[in-house]
Amino acid sequence: MLVTLRYVVGDRLGVLFLALGVGCFLTTLYIAFSKTGNIRLGDETKPQYNNFTWGTMIFTSTMAGGYLVLFFNRMGRCMAVKNQCKNKVFRTGV
Predict the structure, then answer these.
(1) What burial class does residue 65 get, using C-beta atoms within 10 Å of its C-beta: 0-12 exposed, 13-18 middle, 19+ buried?
(2) Is 42 helix (H, G, I), strand (E, B) or coil?
(3) Is the CA virtual torsion 24, 43, 53, 70 positive or negative?
(4) 7 — pLDDT class (breaks 50, 70, 90)
């Protein structure tokens, strides 16, 4: 099922998926550099974390997310291989 989903999104809807990503990026740039981008969110007080700490937390969370994607991708491949091997063994009667 994941292979089929990856095929549909990657091959069939690839251009649409790319256009959606570029559109979201351009919309973000427009909002950031327009009058709306000057709105300050939160209090005027000193932030709880400095820029280095905040950047480290973002980096760590994205690395953890990447590891999860790799883990589940490999688990899906292992499960697919086991199912193929199981079916092959079942068909041959060994």
Answers:
(1) exposed
(2) coil
(3) negative
(4) confident
Task: Give the HSE-up count for residue 38: Cα atoms under 13 Å, Cβ half-sphere.
Answer: 2
Claim: this prediction has a pTM higher than 0.70? no
The arithmetic mean of pLDDT across residues 76-80, rounded, is 61
Q: Where are the domains of the chain?
A: 1-37, 64-94
Return d(Cα 6, Cα 77) in angstroms, integer: 13
Task: Tell me the per-residue pLDDT of 14-42, one tens digit each, with 9 for 90 and over.
Answer: 788 889 999 999 999 999 999 888 888 77
Do 57 and 49 touch, CB atoms closer than 8 A? yes
Residue that has been written with the tokens 């997310």 in this structure: 65
What is the CB-side half-sphere exposure of residue 55 using CA atoms within 13 A? 3
